[in-house]
Amino acid sequence: MTSPSTTISLVDTDPAELAVDAIVIGLHSQTGEPDVAGPAGALLLASGAESIAAAFDGKLTETLALLGATGAPGEVIKLATLGTVTAPIVAAVGLGAEPTGAAPAPETLRRAAGSVVRALAGARRVALTLPLPDDADAPAALRAVAEGALLGSYRFAGYKTRPQPARREPVAEVLIAVPEAGDAAARAEVDRAQAVTGAVRLSRDWVNTAPNMLRPPAFADVVAEAARAAGLGVEVLDEEALAAGGYGGIIAVGQGSEAPPRLVKLTYTPEGGGTGKRVALVGKGITFDTGGISIKPAQGMWEMKSDMGGAAAVGAAMLAIAALKPAVAVTGYLPMAENMPSGTSYRPGDVITMYNGKKVEVLNTDAEGRMVLGDALARACEDGADYLFETSTLTGGQVISLGKRIAGVMGSPELCERVRVAGDAVGEPAWPMPLPDDVRKGMDSDVADISQVNAGMDRAGHMLQGGVFLREFVTDEVAWAHIDIAGPSYHSGEPTGYWTKGGTGVPVRTLIHLVEDVATNG
């Protein structure tokens, strides 16, 4: 299924005269003591709204206040213009308190653009006149607005067979008001935003697809087809190649399903060889996770279609990388399996020989992600990499520790910090976590090199156990980071900011940022 797309372009004409279905302005809240600017709690129009305010004879903020506007971040208030400007609707989106001596933070703009474009579903053409600085921060602000608008307009196509009269179509065209629409740097930011958000939207589509329609062979086929079209190198290992190659972890997890496992390898080679650095991206691709023999409770199990969010993110990020062409070699590894209970499933008590030769004692078949990832990590290191970033919906412990918005990061300390900085830059926060020796000791096995989980089934430090296990499959010379996205990759609540319900596309933008950072800074 492919979600409806939204186009985006730049304009530099007077916003009050734009022939659009709605014009969007920013609105700040004001707090503190009354002063000459107005009473405490008054509203303040953000820059970019000057001509709109003039058309309303200075009564725009007063009217918005009467409609309940507060300027709170993400709040959207619509007002009929009654001919005061060309657009029939003015939509004011809250930006929070006015920052002192600066434009709103990029993430504030990104979320605001997403909120207002989603709220304007049903309008065909919308113009955004949000505040954009005219200094060195301008590119980041424009990028944020463009990304927010394109992601906020996302809606999964779904499978409904009957017309939905009350369902409004997403905004088809977004115009962003800028000082100079022909500016090459501004146009480059929009082009980049379209490439990046296109990847995020595709990742969301894959995560939201019904699990019976995206089992491992089908998932591998759709990723491979998109990758070939993008000019990437593609290698797909089927169940026979995996067994012959010694990928014990992937085979073990996948053997309980009639839909056999796959390992997809995607390769981007920069022109001229680039900087000589090599980046590996690895993503967990469990297309559905019942827990296997250690079966999960029925409540909420339907969301386990999202257990391939890591592979979806890596596959989509590779497509964006092919379009952006950074000067660094990048290889993506997507191990795919369906974890099902059957007479052929792997069992608690099994000992599995992994791709790097290590023996793993299985204690919980619901700890399947680390099994497929262990093989993929070992293969990535064997192929050669200077930096290895792996992402997965690995543990419920991530949600307990950091909530549903912040990913947990484990691995080489310097690279974990680099992931944190990248996450802050793109609005996908991540927080470094330790890999304590006592957690590793708790995973000692009496019969194998390591247990999948704590040998006593103690769930203390559950997220850290996942990281400790994965470390066993990364060679010493490779800097690596494991990004646990169990919470951030899937949003089951009401839409917020540029997140719609379902797959979020986290951490596609983080991975792209990291690759570009390596290309620029080594």
Automatic annotation (TrEMBL):
<keyword id="KW-0479">Metal-binding</keyword>
<keyword id="KW-0645">Protease</keyword>
<keyword id="KW-0031">Aminopeptidase</keyword>
<dbReference type="Pfam" id="PF02789">
    <property type="entry name" value="Peptidase_M17_N"/>
</dbReference>
<keyword id="KW-0378">Hydrolase</keyword>
<dbReference type="InterPro" id="IPR008283">
    <property type="entry name" value="Peptidase_M17_N"/>
</dbReference>
<feature type="binding site">
    <location>
        <position position="289"/>
    </location>
    <ligand>
        <name>Mn(2+) 2</name>
    </ligand>
</feature>
<dbReference type="InterPro" id="IPR000819">
    <property type="entry name" value="Peptidase_M17_C"/>
</dbReference>
<dbReference type="GO" id="GO:0004177">
    <property type="term" value="F:aminopeptidase activity"/>
</dbReference>
<protein>
    <recommendedName>
        <fullName>Probable cytosol aminopeptidase</fullName>
        <ecNumber>3.4.11.1</ecNumber>
        <ecNumber>3.4.11.10</ecNumber>
    </recommendedName>
</protein>
<keyword id="KW-0963">Cytoplasm</keyword>
<feature type="domain" description="Cytosol aminopeptidase">
    <location>
        <begin position="364"/>
        <end position="371"/>
    </location>
</feature>
<dbReference type="Pfam" id="PF00883">
    <property type="entry name" value="Peptidase_M17"/>
</dbReference>
<dbReference type="InterPro" id="IPR043472">
    <property type="entry name" value="Macro_dom-like"/>
</dbReference>
<dbReference type="InterPro" id="IPR011356">
    <property type="entry name" value="Leucine_aapep/pepB"/>
</dbReference>
<feature type="binding site">
    <location>
        <position position="368"/>
    </location>
    <ligand>
        <name>Mn(2+) 2</name>
    </ligand>
</feature>
<feature type="binding site">
    <location>
        <position position="307"/>
    </location>
    <ligand>
        <name>Mn(2+) 2</name>
    </ligand>
</feature>
<comment type="similarity">
    <text>Belongs to the peptidase M17 family.</text>
</comment>
<feature type="binding site">
    <location>
        <position position="284"/>
    </location>
    <ligand>
        <name>Mn(2+) 2</name>
    </ligand>
</feature>
<comment type="function">
    <text>Presumably involved in the processing and regular turnover of intracellular proteins. Catalyzes the removal of unsubstituted N-terminal amino acids from various peptides.</text>
</comment>
<feature type="active site">
    <location>
        <position position="370"/>
    </location>
</feature>
<feature type="binding site">
    <location>
        <position position="368"/>
    </location>
    <ligand>
        <name>Mn(2+) 1</name>
    </ligand>
</feature>
<dbReference type="InterPro" id="IPR023042">
    <property type="entry name" value="Peptidase_M17_leu_NH2_pept"/>
</dbReference>
<feature type="active site">
    <location>
        <position position="296"/>
    </location>
</feature>
<feature type="binding site">
    <location>
        <position position="289"/>
    </location>
    <ligand>
        <name>Mn(2+) 1</name>
    </ligand>
</feature>
<keyword id="KW-0464">Manganese</keyword>
<feature type="binding site">
    <location>
        <position position="366"/>
    </location>
    <ligand>
        <name>Mn(2+) 1</name>
    </ligand>
</feature>
